[in-house]
Design goal:
Strand order of the largest sheet: 1-9-8-7-6-5-4-2-3
CATH architecture of one domain: Alpha-Beta Barrel
Order of helices and strands: EHEEHHEHEHEHEHEHE
Largest sheet: 9 strands, mixed
CATH topology of one domain: TIM Barrel
Organism: Solimicrobium silvestre
Radius of gyration: 17 Å
Number of helices: 8
CATH class of one domain: Alpha Beta
GO molecular function, one term: phosphoric diester hydrolase activity
Structural class: alpha/beta
Protein name: Glycerophosphoryl diester phosphodiesterase
Helix content: 25-40%
Pfam family, one: GDPD
Shape: globular
Oligomer: single chain
Bound molecules: SN-glycerol-3-phosphate, magnesium ion
């Protein structure tokens, strides 16, 4: 997986399709994207699924907390029509479905572990175990190993324990002064951060220390050039139409 793919489709297909769905990944693939970021959360019965929000209602028709819903009930709900009528019928995919889709299509994954409040360790552990077992069983795919990331340090500690051989990145909205300590403690290979707060000096420090560095969410060409000129390795973008897979 190293070095990073440079341009990564954010939440599956960025602004082209309903986030965190297989249709989104297919849209990215149709545009030549073989690198994707998505968010993973647990249902009540501990099934990892692709969702960004803890609550239903924004991208998935329904109400309530994902952590209080059984996977079989969640999979019945509409997850595409909020975005555009042609996506009606899209469903929330299970993480396992996505692992298969990405392996078959040789898509590199940044699996962002997005635990609902209170489920940090469990989400990291289960996501790690499923991923580890998938790559142990499915050697025929020759798929590149994914990269885990999370804002939750507890989730990262748990995924490290469950799947020590799969690399990790620490996600920060604003990079704290003790960022290096956190990366070291988790034996992380990279730091992912909000592009809005990154400075050239910090980028330089992180690269000098030997870590990968990725920024979300970069939707403007000038900013993309600037960040790459600072040594940033990879950009998460919603604008797959503007910042293409072959962006230089
Ligand atoms: O993983 C990078 C980025 O996706 C983090 O923010 O809120 O879009 O999951 P968010
Ligand atoms: Mg994310």
């Amino acid at each position: 997986m190293w070095p990073y793919p440079k341009i990564i489709a954010h939440r599956g297909g960025g602004s082209l399709a309903p986030e965190n769905t297989l249709a989104a990944m297919q849209c990215g693939l149709n545009r030549g994207f073989h690198a994707v970021e998505f968010d993973v959360m647990l249902t009540k019965d501990l099934v990892p699924v692709l969702l960004h929000d803890e609550k239903l209602g924004r991208t998935v028709a329904g109400q309530g907390q994902v952590s209080e819903m059984l996977a079989q009930d969640l999979f019945q709900l509409e997850a595409g029509s909020w975005f555009a009528p042609e996506f009606a019928g899209c469903r929330v995919p299970s993480y396992t479905q996505v692992l298969e889709f990405c392996a078959k299509n040789e898509i590199w994954m940044n699996v962002e572990i997005k635990p609902a409040a209170g489920f940090d360790t469990l989400t990291g552990k289960i996501t790690g175990e499923i991923t580890r077992d998938f790559y142990q069983k499915n050697t025929q795919f020759n798929a590149p190993l994914p990269l885990f990331s999370s804002f939750s340090l507890d989730a990262l500690a748990a995924v490290k324990l469950a799947a020590p051989l799969i690399p990790r990145a620490v996600l920060f909205d604003q990079i704290p002064a003790n960022w290096h300590e956190h990366l070291r403690a988790l034996d992380a290979v990279a730091l992912h951060t909000n592009q809005q707060h990154l400075t050239a000096t910090l980028a330089h420090e992180i690269k000098q220390a030997g870590y990968g560095l990725s920024c979300y969410t970069v939707n403007e060409i000038a900013r993309a050039h600037e960040l790459l000129s600072w040594g940033v390795d990879a950009l998460f973008t919603d604008r797959l139409d503007l910042i293409g897979a072959d962006f230089t």
